[in-house]
Amino acid sequence: MRRNFLVKILTVLLLLVTVSASAFQEKKHEESGSKKDTKQEIKEFIKHHLKDSHDFGITSYTNDQGEKKHIGLSLPVILWDEGLHVFSSSKFHHETTIAESKGNYYKIYHGLVFKTDSKGTITYDEKHHPTNLKPLDLSITKSVVMIIITALLMFFLFTNLAKSYGKNGGIATGAGRFFEPIILYIRDDIAIPNIGEKNHGKYMSFLLTIFFFIWFLNIFGLTPLGVNVTGNIAITFSLALLTFLITTFTAKKDYWKHIFWMPGVPVPMKIVLAPIELLGVIIKPFSLLIRLYANMQAGHIVLMSLVGLIFVFKSWLGGTMSFFLAFSISLIEVLVALLQAYIFTMLSALYFGFASEEHEHDEAH
Amino acid sequence: MEGLNFIGAGLVVIGVGIGIGQIGGKAMEAIARQPEAYGKIQTAMLIAAALIEGIGFAALFAA
User: Fold this and answer.
1) From the candidates B16, B47, B52, B60, which should be mutated to test the interface with A, based on the most A CB atoms within 10 A?
2) Partners of residue A287 in chain B, C-beta under 8 Å
């Protein structure tokens, strides 16, 4: 009884902290006597937070002298530009100064590292995009740190769960217990119906990893740390690329036959169908990538705009209503986090099922 | 005309709304006909809704 009560208190506290922390962080921004219009400042804040950044900034505030103080970690910047340059991103001073390393000068503009000269000139083209050279950026950015943390979390969680089976004779104990029904659900309701009993074992590890990885990353994106990992098109691109590679390289002969020479269909139709199916091979993983990216990005934008709305309405009523609106949207976002992970996994399983399907054909397929 | 972007975005949202609304309505009818299949119908409905929303978001980003 006591433990149940504690859990409830903790949950309520966690929810309150999550929502209010992000709101309070912005309050300090605004009280600094902004010279800019509030809406403009909110837009820039949102843009800055949705991008990946080279330092793990927890929060920032402006102290009494009007200077901006940032709290957070500076992550290492690793560049490959005819030689390895490694330095801490604190040299960039939050995108204001030029960093110098082994004779090359670098400057960050909107989150990307550019090579400049000692004065820090950046040449723009007509569309106001910089045309400086970019070194190969292999830095440990905020997203990379989050991915590493999530990977370690998953690793420890699931190896402990697996070990607990051995220690306890077939019954799971410990924190991983919550995940056992989910794992079974993925096997019984996602993998087996789509891939079939025979081959599903091969793909299970990938499906499980993808599901929990996307789910945990989405949930981390909702916390006030402000890490928007799955809303980054490069990351969803890599995940979709993995699905594509696995479908291509474990595909059986029937799969390719279905694409290029669909059996059971008259020859003119076969020739018409081949390019369409070929396009489909590319478009299916592409839709996976876009779906996850756009859902997460749009969710974050909406959420942060609503929280920003609190500061546009400088009144009690408007502020409170915006707060509750933001809170409800947060709850929907929690659902969307799980849903998007589930959809990604299910569609990947579907594609694997197409690839590894083998059945006898008669002409009336 | 710069405003055409927003008209396009509005059209996308109308399309998504109609699509998901149709799915939801048919799903409700199906559940009413056979209440035991509630779980399966709900799963199928969510899958279809997520697919439609995926296209919707992609188009929204392009607009």
Assistant:
1) B47
2) 54-55, 58
Q: How many CA atoms lie within 13 A of A143 on its CB side?
A: 18
Q: Name the residue among A246, A283, A311, A216 with its Cα closest to residue A26.
A: A311
The dotted CATH code for B8-62 is: 1.20.20.10
In 3D space, the residue among A291, A278, A273, A301 whose CA is nearest the CA of residue A340 turns out to be A291
Specify whether the CB–CB gap between A179 and A88 falls below 8 A. no
- The pTM is what? 0.77
Amino acid at residue number A49:
H
* A294:B50 CB<8 A: no
ipTM of the complex: 0.71
B11 touches chain A (CB under 8 A): no
Residue A62 near residue A82, CB atoms below 8 Å:
no
**Domain-wise residue ranges, chain B:** 8-62
Q: Going residue by residue through chain A (365 aa), what tens digit of pLDDT does each one get?
A: 667 777 777 777 666 655 554 544 444 444 444 445 777 777 777 777 777 777 766 666 656 666 666 666 677 777 776 667 777 766 666 666 666 666 666 777 666 777 777 666 667 766 667 677 777 777 777 788 888 888 998 888 888 888 887 777 667 676 777 888 888 888 888 888 788 788 788 888 888 899 999 988 888 888 776 677 887 888 889 889 998 998 888 877 777 777 777 777 777 887 888 888 888 888 888 888 888 888 888 888 888 777 777 777 777 777 777 777 778 777 777 878 888 888 888 888 888 888 877 665 554 44
User: Distance between CA atoms of A355 and A359, rounded to whole angstroms?
Assistant: 12
